[in-house]
Amino acid sequence: NESLHELDPEVAVAVDAELKRQQSTLEMIASENFAPVAVMEAQGSVLTNKYAEGYPGRRYYGGCEHVDVTEQIAIDRVKALFGAEYANVQPHSGASANQAALFAIAQPGDTILGLDLAHGGHLTHGMRLNFSGKQFNVVAYHVDDAGLVDMAEVERLAKEHRPKVIIAGWSAYPRRLDFAEFRRIADEVEAYLWVDMAHFAGLVAAGLHPNPVPYADVVTSTTHKTLGGPRGGIILARNKDFAKKLNSAVFPGFQGGPLEHVIAAKAVSFKVAASEGFKERQQRTIEGAQILAERLTSEDARAHGVNVASGGTDVHLVLVDLRDSELDGQQAEDRLHEVGITVNRNAVPNDPRPPMVTSGLRIGTPALATRGFGADDFREVADIIAETLKPSYDAEALKARVTALAEKHPLYPGL
Ligand code: PLP
Prior knowledge:
The chain is of the alpha/beta class. 44% of the residues lie in helices and 13% in strands. A 7-stranded mixed β-sheet has the order 4-10-9-8-7-5-6, with helices on both faces. Strands 11-12-15-14 form a 4-stranded antiparallel β-sheet. Bound molecules: pyridoxal-5'-phosphate (PLP). The site of pyridoxal-5'-phosphate has 15 residues, from helix 5.
């Protein structure tokens, strides 16, 4: 019964340092968030000890009566949250959910049509080195010159290649997708429509973004981005047509024992996501991103070569375009790190620089909104970022402004 500090001070010190880092800096990686203490409590519980291969009521192990309860609560809550008739809460991650979903509706060698990684897609949507790119015949669509998904190209490629699956979803795209149009195109070529809402699921849960569930054959998501829960994945469907195939793709197809402690934590996060407070937080998330986009498209920012892909945002992130700036993505990321703001460099469409350098930044507001940031705070954050990306900047002064914001909104005060 030794504590972490007693048993393993080396690890404990690093964990403590990470807590301090999260508390003292501004987290603006668009795929990150801060899980509630109750979620972390469930995730750190004795449920980590339990084997439970199978599904609630149909397990291959004894002693599952309590994890059956938590897993069933998670299933029921997530179905209600998104209006789905089918849910699987066992995928260990977003990538695991995507792998299972794809293998449930297609077979290796089939053609899949997804958004190009370099234009905001995800690895699991057909990247060359990913399982999706290695085992499927990948055709990619792109964004147009305005930075919007080119639906005319989607239709043209769908008719030309007759894909088995059309994938709608993204990791770095600041606008909403037209799910009805994707459905129409999929029907026209008799393809399945798979929507990966990993990034924007929290906005959907709050009713601030169109819900893909009524349109798609399968919907996957992570639970840790805008949704604000533990790290993990889920699969949803509007009806039970693929229920058997999806369940058996997850287990025994790709996974063994489910992470019941994480599933319990998912259940808690779905309860939070159904609350009024969650909706209000997602509103601040979108408002914050819009404030950021406005500041980074101002004349002052553009004078230094800073711009925003698609000219703005409808979601929780801004894709900063530095192709006209003296700074590349790596340098910009490093500068923001120096003043205490964490972001990730990201390729912009038609990026002339290599993927390890890039000409862009992906900046998200979910974690700061969870911390309590409102419009005035986001205006200050946006100004700090714009000032940091100018040719000359006062790192000390900017860092002091970051610290003031961090202190105004304490994170995990009891920890
Ligand atoms: N799908 C999308 C659209 C994502 O952006 C991500 C993560 O960045 C994933 C899936 C994969 O999630 P995970 O990192 O949990 O495997």
